[in-house]
């Protein structure tokens, strides 16, 4: 007797995780994409470019591990603050305020 083989449909490809950074001064919105995005004064592929002389060329890195977003300071001159606390690396929550140089960015999970 012929056998019927059922093939499960392929799971739809999940789009890469993204998050938003909203500049509190200008209202400009930046999109960061998983797995990692560099934030700084220097243009990088897929990076977030900030025109702030107090931001280092490669200032901080946003990364997504499949569960949540983290920010890590990349040995910047002026440091990285999350909710006014100087951090080397820390997890991010929706609504956190990230300060790089004189730029305040509101973190929003998509």
Description:
With 110 residues, the chain is mainly β. 0% of the residues lie in helices and 44% in strands. It has no helices and 11 strands. The protein is elongated, with a radius of gyration of 18 Å. The chain starts with 17 loop residues before the first strand and ends with a strand.
Supply the number of helical segments.
0
Secondary-structure element series: EEEEEEEEEEE
Mean pLDDT across the residues is 92
CA radius of gyration is 18 Å
The largest β sheet comes out as: 6 strands, antiparallel
Strand content: 35-45%
Strand ordering within the main sheet? 2-1-11-10-7-8
Structural class: mainly beta
Helix share bin: under 10%
Could you name the ranges where pLDDT drops below 50 across 5 or more consecutive residues?
Answer: none
Rough shape? elongated
* Alpha-carbon distance between the two ends: 51 Å
Short key terms for the protein model shown above:
110 residues, single chain, mainly beta, 11 strands, elongated
Characterize this entry briefly.
The chain has strands at 18-23, 29-33, 36-40, 48-49, 60-64, 69-73, 80-82, 85-87, 89-91, 97-100, 103-109. With 110 residues, it is an all-beta fold.
């Amino acid at each position: 007797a012929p056998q019927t083989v059922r093939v499960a449909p392929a799971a739809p490809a999940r789009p890469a995780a993204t998050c938003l950074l909203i500049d509190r001064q200008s209202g400009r919105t930046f999109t960061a994409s998983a797995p990692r995005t560099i934030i700084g004064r220097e243009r990088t592929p897929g990076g977030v470019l900030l025109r702030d002389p107090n931001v280092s060329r490669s200032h901080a890195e946003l990364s997504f591990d499949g569960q949540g977003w983290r920010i890590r300071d990349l040995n910047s001159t002026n440091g990285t603050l999350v909710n006014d606390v100087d951090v080397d690396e820390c997890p991010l929550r929706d609504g956190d305020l990230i300060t790089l140089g004189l730029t305040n960015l509101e973190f929003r999970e998509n």
